[in-house]
Amino acid sequence: MSNPIRHIIGCMTGTSIDGLDAAFIAVEGRGLEEMKACVVGAVSLPLGDLAARLRTVAEQAPVTAGEVASLMRELALLHVEACERLCGMDTAIRPDLVCVHGQTVYHKPPLSWQLMQPAPIAAAMRCPVVFDLRAADIAASGQGAPLTPIADYVLFRAIAAKIAVVNLGGFANITRIERDMGVLGVTASDLCPCNNLLDGIARLLLRKPFDEGGSSAIGGSVDEGAFEDLDGIFASLRGPRRSLGTGDETADWISRYRAHLPASDIAATACVAIGRVIADAARGAHSVLLAGGGVLNLALRRAIEANCPEHIGLTDEHGVPATHREAVEWAVLGALCQDRVSIGLPAITGCSVPAPIAGAWLFPDGLSFG
Hints:
Elements: E1 6-13, E2 20-28, E3 36-45, H1 50-58, H2 65-89, E4 97-108, E5 111-115, H3 119-125, E6 129-131, H4 135-139, H5 149-156, E7 162-168, E8 171-178, E9 186-193, H6 195-206, H7 215-218, H8 224-237, H9 251-257, H10 263-282, E10 287-291, H11 298-307, E11 311-314, H12 325-338, H13 346-349, E12 360-362
């Protein structure tokens, strides 16, 4: 039986609410062990005024039903624009499937909401859309996160015997892969706030959306008292099968030190604290791959490298753009869902065994599941 190549778009807006990433992949083979994926293209679009409005919802501020409906439609239309741009890179290729994450505005299992209206995407792209990938895992008593470890396995399992893939997103998380054990050798966990904290410092203290390149943090010094305080907060957030979400921000920590520490010192302290957590989690891996928007923060990169003796590189070295890794992996997850492969790993998310098949589906007229 032939397995034609599928072209799939994955779309991700992370908890840092700083933009929309979309990636176009070509998938060869079906099922977990046969699947191979190649990145065709990737784009990022700013959220514009959607960013502040989505952050208002994520921060649990009161909004009207009309505003929520407007946000859902405008976010969907931005996804359509991203998909069209990807298709414009090669007009001969149209997607067979689009997999969208939606914007996380609340995540505290068993409650979770990835805000999205997929109908405009399906109508514009004329292909199936799979969405709401976390709900099935949560309904099966899981945390609904992290779901990307199985996609890390598909993309990176051939690199080394022991691999650690670290995502520097709104929250830092890690996937560890022991190749000889197959998918049973995949472990993962959320680690600590990352860009959520660093961008919060930038917005509150630097009056900027983010600390570009980590320039402010690079010019600062670590305050030991603030470091120990933040390290303690990070420790309190960790736990077995704990998935971090929109309720784990560290704004109180910023407020405690903003009056008597320079903004650059607060940023530097946060980078070192995050770097220490990541380095400890990655210890023992033969290869450590970094991805996510945080790779652009040189202060954070240096903090990780200073504490981690293992070889550290970017996922770019293996064909996956570091800044678009989650979008690429969401496309891989869409392919796995289409192949009826469970994307939640019970040992990681805590869902029941057997793990459920994830995803809600929307089809344009005349198309069906395939």
